[in-house]
Amino acid sequence: MAPPGQLLPLARSLLPLSAPPFVSGRRRRLPTLVLGRALPPPTWLPHGRLSPAHPLPFAPPRRLSRPPPPATSLPGASPGGGAEAQAVLAEFVTSERVKVAAMLGLALALCNADRVVMSVAIVPLSQAYGWTPSFAGVVQSSFLWGYLVSPIIGGALVDYYGGKRVMAYGVALWSLATFLSPWAAARSLWLFLSTRVLLGMAEGVALPSMNNMVLRWFPRTERSSAVGIAMAGFQLGNTIGLLLSPIIMSRAGIFGPFVIFGLFGFLWVLVWISAISGTPGENAQISAHELDYITRGQKLVKTQSGGERLRKVPPFSKLLSKWPTWALISANAMHSWGYFVILSWMPVYFKTIYHVNLREAAWFSALPWVMMAVLGYVAGVVSDRLIQNGTSITLTRKIMQTIGFVGPGVALLGLNAAKSPVIASAWLTIAVGLKSFGHSGFLVNLQECQIQLEHLLPF
Length: 459
Description:
CATH class: Mainly Alpha
CATH superfamily: MFS general substrate transporter like domains
Largest sheet: none
Keywords: Ion transport, Membrane, Transmembrane, Transmembrane helix, Transport
Number of domains: 1
Shape: globular
Subcellular location: Membrane
Function: Probable anion transporter.
Mean pLDDT: 76
CATH architecture: Up-down Bundle
Helix content: 55-70%
Strand content: under 5%
Number of helices: 19
GO molecular function, one term: transmembrane transporter activity
Number of strands: 0
Membrane topology: Multi-pass membrane protein
Low-confidence stretches: 4-39, 42-79, 300-311, 451-459
């Protein structure tokens, strides 16, 4: 018997030279496959014919009837990173979380439109009821009587019931107060003032509810953009109220804007209840990819439902003992003081200093709020991009807040040298526009406290 090492050479010597390489062990070049052509028969079979006992292990390929279509890319996308960026943008625009941000923006637009309509109607109302300028100021300030404490109460309600439910009740109540204002004014002055107080109380829950929904629906790297979208609606509400109220009053009377804006609020509530969920996990339309993206991009906050609701007394003493709390309160106080002073006195400023008519004053007063809406969203996108590129969240918020304070201060100094209403409007547009950078500063920072009681801080 031959040793095992000599069996392989002996077996090779007995094979014909035309044996296939995987049998003989020799390296031979296989025939090239050509589409549409039959494979040549193996040379080791007799007469060049295939044996039924040795069929080919695969069928010859068929010729394609038409070439496959080239890979398509999104319009305007460049190969590589550009196409990926376009895909991310397309996913963001069509996502469920953007629907939430858009609905929040519409709610805040109604919030400010219902608020600013009184600034336009106060002049004809004073003439119709014989109000003095000082009493007209009392009527306008009655809104703030209810707004003074409602953000604190609204924040506690948001922590207990969630942002979706509290926002729905808030919009319904302030729309009802706006809608009933004509009826109340015709019945009693005190009843009319009560509707204004109810309006302020209901609108106080808007921003805490918005913060709650953004915190639950958006990852950390998109929260500034979400707040930018929502606050853009907030500023556009000023523009809508200032521009549309005089037109509606000229056709439907003094109280026409109150009725129309109130009806729009009721319509918004119906859409909000039926189309929006309190958390991504409760949404039946959200894709698995988007849900995974949201949950991976944020530290989840426990859903408040049933027995999981917060039932403890908020630790106000602990909140007030922290320096970050006072920093947020101070930043919000300075931001809101400048915001409401400009909002309340801008039409009067143009009318008394530059002696323009009421329609021109409305247009000069509306332009800065349009700029604030646009730059607010731009600031949110820039802020998110800085965080995505590695800048710390704390440094990003400080940069945005610095622009939001220093920019308007410089612009208001330039306003003192304005000699025409056009130049004055330009300076005010710069000041109000740069003020929106603060929304990507202290306002988003409230959501990053990572405690549920952050909504109790006043807005």
